[in-house]
Amino acid sequence: MSKFTVALRLFIITSVTAVFLAFAYKVTAPITEANNQKTFQESLREVLPLAKEFKQIDPGSFEDETVTINSINVGYAGAEATDLKGYVVTATSSEGYGGDVCVMVGVDPSYKVNKVIISSPFSETPGLGANAKKPAFLDQFIGKGGNIEVVKGEAKGDKQISAISSATITSKAVTACVNASIEVIKATSQKTAAAAEEIKLVAEEKVDQSNAELDAALENRKDEPTPVIKEDDGNE
Amino acid sequence: MNKKETFLNGLFKENPTFVLLLGMCPTLAVTTGVIDAMGMGLATTFVLICSNIFISLLRKFIPETVRIAGYIVIIAGFVTIVEMLMNAYFPALAQSLGMYIPLIVVNCIILGRAEAFASKNGFLPSVLDGCGMGLGFTGALMIIATVRELLGAGSLFGLPILGGSGMSIMIMAPGAFFTLGIILAVINIISAKKKGGQEDAF
Asked: Are A62 and A36 contained in the same domain?
């Protein structure tokens, strides 16, 4: 077999493989994307069952050494934007034992954890860190309100959870995500509250201003020499 | 070698894990639980059968001098397509097998069988070889995983037995080496004893 034939055959093999790959990708990519979307929506409902509609908002920039906030979804009970049921945050910690740990946290309007689930990527050691997926660990977060601390052994009070035995690193990574999620929700809702406050202030200022203008105008009017209407009492 | 022998070859005489010592990376990494081991083993078996089919059908087309490059392109392309199809149509299965699928590409058992068997044999023997080798690998992984899960986590198939707790060192990397070493030692003792009596054993 000549060198040319060898190269040509290898070229044919790679080309045919590439065509198959491209075809398979074109067929499967939209389905995979739809699947991922569906899974994401289902997860949102799982961590915040009271909410029916979710609206994604800008996660902004969150400053933390280890945790990244991927997305924030605000959950409402209906189409009306008034009936707030809580927030869902997806956060990733880079401090897992086997790489990134991604967590989805449902937070109710009073900044208490509603439910936590592990999403992907998550590649902690099976039998050790992967026990973080079990309710025995995750249910500890329910009802807690941030600044949660991981302790070995029995957890006391509402600021502590007990670590998975032999998997403290994973436990800490998950907890860091939950804490960061609550922080970012507090910051975001404060920001929106502040924005609302600002609008109110501006409006009030405007009202004040227009009041002042009116006063000034009135004042000016007073300053003007009041046309004295001389009453002509011809009967004097 | 008849058909039955071809199939049984991978299960016992040339068991990829215990005799050929191929594919040690997944053997050590994915044997912490029996379910994971079974998933990895069956996924590998599937890919092995299919890659054996492709290689044996294309064995006259692939030039001798660049055969390894050809095998790798075919196997990697094939595994990637399987992964895409699984993500699209069987998302639950894809989620549980997760990262094992891409790992199969670099599993040397696949390349080893392509080189040693499928490139020299026809369609049917290659299928049988893929089945035997794959199931031999699955069985070996499950044996190691049974020991490790039982001693390390106190459970089997994820169900708690033995009080549901164990020595965590057996779940971690050293436990894999302990288990594999002891099993290999036992197999060697048995085969040495049998060799003393009769020639053709294990």
From this structure: no
Sign of the alpha-carbon dihedral angle for B21, B22, B27, B29:
positive
Based on the structure, what is the number of domains in chain A?
2
Q: Do the domain assignments include residue A165?
A: yes
Query: Is A157 part of any domain?
Result: yes
Task: Compare CB distances from A14 to B36, B73, B89 and report the shortest one's residue.
Answer: B73
- Min distance A11 CA to chain B CA atoms (Å): 9
Residues A124 and A159 in one domain: yes
pLDDT exceeding 90 applies to what percent of chain A?
Answer: 10
Does A7 fall in a domain?
yes
Provide the residue range defining the domain that includes A4.
1-44
Q: What is the ipTM of this complex?
A: 0.72
Mean pLDDT, range B4-12, rounded to an integer: 83
Does residue A127 belong to any structural domain of this protein?
Answer: yes
How do beta strands A53-57 and A67-76 pair? antiparallel
What would the mean pLDDT of B92-96 be, rounded to a whole number? 72
Identify whether residues A40 and A57 lie together within a single domain: no
pLDDT digits (tens, 9 = 90+) for A83-132: 777 888 888 888 878 788 888 888 888 888 888 888 877 777 766 777 77
Peptide bond just before A121 cis, omega within 30 deg: yes
Contacts with A100 from chain B: Cβ below 8 Å: none
Tell if the CB–CB gap between B172 and A14 is shorter than 8 Å. no
If asked whether residues A166 and A89 sit together in one domain, one would say yes
Residue A41 corresponds to which tokens in the numbers above? 């929506």
Specify whether A84 is located in the same domain as A156.
Answer: yes
Interface of A with B (CB under 8 A): 1, 5-6, 9-10, 13-14, 17-18, 20-21, 24-25, 27-29, 31-32, 35, 39, 120, 123, 125-128, 165-166
pTM of the full structure: 0.68
- Identify the pLDDT of residue B202: 43
What is each CA distance from A207 to A195, A213, A221, in whole angstroms? Answer: 18, 10, 21
- A131 lies in the same domain as A186: yes
For residue B62, what are the contacts with CB-CB under 8 A and spacing of at least 6? A9, A13, B55, B70, B71, B119
Which residue has better confidence, B141 or B195?
Answer: B141
